[in-house]
Amino acid sequence: MGAGIYLALGLVALHAGYATPLAIGVAAIAYVLTGLTYAELSSTYPMAGGSATFARAAFGDGVSFLAGWMLCLDYIVTSAIFAIPAIGYLSYFVPFLKEPLWLGIAAIALLSSLLVLNVIGIKESVGFTLILSLLDIASEITLIVLGLVLVLIPTGSLLAWPSTFNIGSISPGPNWYDFVQGITLAMVSYLGIEALAQAAEETKVAGKTIPRATMLTLVSVIIIYLLISIVAVNLVPISGPNGLSTKWANDPLSGVASIPVAGWLMAGWIAILGCTISIVGANAGIIGSSRMLYAMSEFKLLPRVFGTTHKKFRTPHISVITFGLGSIVLVALSTFVATGQNGETALVLLGSLYNVGALISYVNAHASVIVTRNTDPARFRPYKMPFAVHFTRNGKRLEIPIIPVAGFIVTGAIWVAVIATHELGRLLGVIWVIIGMSMYFYYRKKSKLPVWGRAET
Predict the structure, then answer these.
(1) Which of 27, 87, 106, 449 lies 20 to 30 angstroms, CA to CA, from 401?
(2) 344's torsion region: left (phi>0), alpha (psi -120 to 50) or beta?
(3) How far apart are the C-alpha atoms of 430 and 233, rounded to whole Å?
(4) Residue 453 resides in a domain
(5) Burial level of 388, CB count in 10 A (0-12/13-18/19+)?
(6) Are 381 and 40 in contact (CB under 8 A)?
(7) Does some domain include residue 456?
(8) Per-residue confidence (pLDDT) for residue 183, from 0 to 100
(9) Would you state the pLDDT for residue 343?
């Protein structure tokens, strides 16, 4: 919780400039709507698979595979996109790691190590992750308080901040195109909704715990992100040699903490924490992809081989190796090949690619609520979103839930914006869909299973 800002702040600032808090705020609307949808669905269908499970209940196996395949893309990108800031924050102590070549080499070495560890077998430490999350939030709150109390409020910077940007203008900007790009990249900071859904099957009293955890996450993350982005754009210049979107692009919170008010000690602490949190995030992507592939093989969406485990280590080694290598390829592509094309940095490319998959999953989740409310009305829903329009058609009582409809529209619009504004992300996303659907059609036809209907499990 709260880790996404470690990598996304610099991305958003690159395009939205001093209007970065507004871009993060607009993205928060989609985050809230999607979080409420996931709270209902994950408590209603508490099984591993997340959006793929929801799609299977609502639409059948064909749409379920597409949702699951796009989630696999998200997990691959998650590993890659966290590996880069992990090295970026480490570069605070080892400056040459800021160079794209060494950044890419070090990120690939990190992912290779995590891949080997996950094949051999390494257990997640819930306590360690919890401690890191609490330290993460405490550090961010400390930065916010220091910035507000010691600089921004005494100097009146907050009052002058609105004059530093003018959305829709060339100067001071940002123009509408860049602001929309900022919103799409701000979605990268709101990671973790799918992780909660994936954990539902292993959660005691999921119907109560998952919605409560989701609500707490929504409130705390949004408040912290808005405040820290306001502090950041008022303390650190956006561009220039020491800018938030230039020097500190891969480790933005180190830049915020490097100001005199915080001192080198705080900056060093943030760098260590940012590196550690990012390594945990990269590892979570590898673990998540193997969990996702296992669920898809159980639903007969993919060959059983992806769900098999190593005879000695008892780990899903094929899934780990396949998608771990996918993350390594993405890091290599984004840092060695595609960086600089069309003005896109490695993190911008990976962020847009992440959103291509994530937003399809979000759109699918909203649609799944709307459909299952009417096709599976007898299902017990421990948490049910309020506000719905009811009507009768052909003697059958139907309902249209308002929040999922709004979420469908908002996340769908942001997905269109991602496709329209990120050429490389769009291209790689299309290639990913073609590869996945071709493999799915071949497997289902060969296994004599229905392509769109539900196979017996």
Answers:
(1) 27
(2) beta
(3) 35
(4) no
(5) middle
(6) yes
(7) no
(8) 94
(9) 46
393: part of which helix (H) or strand (E)? strand 388-393
* Residue where the block lists tokens 């094309």: 341
- Phi and psi dihedrals of 159, rounded to 5? -70, -30
Judge whether 455 lies within some domain: no
What is the full DSSP assignment across 266-320? HHHHHHHHHHHHHHHHHHHHHHHHHHHHHHHHHTTSS-GGGG---TTT-S-HHHH
| CATH value at residue 357 | 1.20.1740.10
- Whether 102 contacts 96, CB under 8 Å: yes
**Among residues 408, 410, 399, which one has the least CA distance to residue 368?**
408
Query: Closest by alpha carbon to 343, among 442, 257, 246?
Result: 246
389-398: long-range pairs with CB below 8 Å, 24+? 398/374
Q: What is the pLDDT of residue 2?
A: 66
Model's pTM, two decimal places?
0.88
Structure tokens at 40: 């209902």
Residue 103 neighbours by CB under 8 Å, 6+ apart: 84, 87, 88, 91, 97, 250, 335, 346
Which of 114, 141, 173, 52 shows the shortest CA–CA distance to 320? 114
What type of residue is 135? L
Residue 451 resides in a domain: no
Polymer length in residues for the chain: 457
Total domains, the chain:
1
Question: Domain range for residue 272?
Answer: 5-446
Closest CA to 365 of 16, 3, 39: 39
Closest by alpha carbon to 11, among 235, 207, 193, 246?
246
Nearest residue to 365 (alpha-carbon basis) of 62, 61, 36, 74: 36
433 C-beta neighbours (distance < 10 Å), count: 17
Q: CA–CA separation, 136 vs 118, rounded Å?
A: 25
Q: What are the 10-residue block averages of pLDDT along the chain, 457 residues in total?
A: 82 93 96 94 86 91 92 89 92 89 92 88 63 82 86 85 91 91 90 74 78 90 94 89 84 81 74 88 83 82 82 81 88 72 67 88 95 93 93 89 97 92 83 93 92 82
